[in-house]
Amino acid sequence: MAAKVRSLLSKQKSFFRKIYSFEIPDSKEFDETVCNKIRQTERLTIFFQIVRNGLNQSDSVEVDTFGFRRFNWMDWLISILCLINAIRCGILTQNTNDSVAVYLGNIFFRDAKGYVLLLWCLVATIGLGFFREWLMTLEAKGKFKVLSVWNVCRNGFIPVNLQMNELNTKRFRFTVYLVTLFVYWTMLATPLFCIFLYLSLLLNNPWAYQIHGLTLFSLLWLPVFILSLSTLLNTIMGFGWYIMCSLYFHLYRLRDLIDCADFLLNNLKHGLFAEKDMQLFCSQIIHHLNDFEFASHRLRYVLLGYFSVIALTGNFDVFIGLILRVHTVSFCNLLATAGFIILLSVGIFGLVFGSFIAQLGTLTIRLHQLSCRNTLSTQSASKVLEIMDRAAGPYNGLKIGDFVTLEKQFFILFTLENISLLMLFTCNIGPLLN
């Protein structure tokens, strides 16, 4: 009777597992789909001149005295359009002449608080423009070779090439697919969203129906605005795609090390442990930690710039949408929602990649268990102690500049800092604009 009950319960358990379990896709067709999406996203980033070489980054410096864009007409066009849009917004913020406003296509014509949005557009264009120029210069100097560690994934996710086991390879492939799919469609939708936003703001202005020249010149300035804004926004998304996939690659390789440690512990229980395996495992840990620390050190200022630009963008969006309440109610709600989403995404980024330190702690525990349960030689024991001391050090983790190491508590600290920054904006800038 008891055997029948156990059999019935096991069948029910397997039935509910099949219904509610989430399985990672595993097929050659899915692998080819992911690779195609990676190649498409890479070509899209090259088209928008986010990077010039895609995943084919190298240390070779090929910059002449003229600069990195000498023969690149697309990059020249984007930079000139961004400069023109910044000059246009700067003139409109200080302009009091209606004729100049009409000729420059001011979609906030005679709006009491329209100059706030123009000023915000000016600051965003200048800030994102300088950030893009900086990224292009760093790439031309060969600083982004660390982003090409996962370029083998363009031709397939092979565990041997990725130095992961099969399960972690599937997890990494599925994560890359989700991130790539989101970034790809977001980059394609950004120009359409900018067009919709520009036209909706123009049509909500009642003067556009009375002054036909305002409508005409606003539509003539539409390509300049769309190309400059969509390119700058896609720079944040596209280059963030390279960074996130590279960091995910190192994170899953660390998880693979923990799986290897569990495998060695299991062999130790069954008497199949060899000291040669331990030495090979230690060398593998050192190799992976060196790669990640090099990538973290090389990207620390880029990540600091990312966090600064995105955090300020989210804060100003919330401030303009909720505190100042400029323009229409729907536009303010859209701006505030975008600001909250931006701040939340940065916090989630810190929460996900802050787990690197937790994974290092788990790896330290596994090494401690291996060293306690087995008699190691002096050389192997000293190597294990060295790795444990290195993994437990406060300098490990993802660097944000030279003074912050990303941890799981970053989500809370980032939220509190942004709340205090919004209060600072409200108390000091709000009365001046009103």
UniProtKB/TrEMBL annotation:
Lyase listed as a keyword: no
Sorted UniProt keywords: Membrane, Transmembrane, Transmembrane helix
Ranges that cross the membrane: 76-94, 114-135, 174-199, 219-245, 301-324, 336-358, 410-433
Record keyword Protease present: no
The protein's name: Gustatory receptor
Species name: Tetranychus urticae
Organism lineage string: Eukaryota, Metazoa, Ecdysozoa, Arthropoda, Chelicerata
